[in-house]
Amino acid sequence: MSPIIYGVFVVFGLVFVIISITSRKRAQAAQAWPTTPGEITSSRVDIHTSTDSDGHTSTTYRPVVVYRYELMGLEYSGERIAFG
Question: What angle do CA 49, 50, 52 make, to 5 degrees?
Answer without folding.
Answer: 155
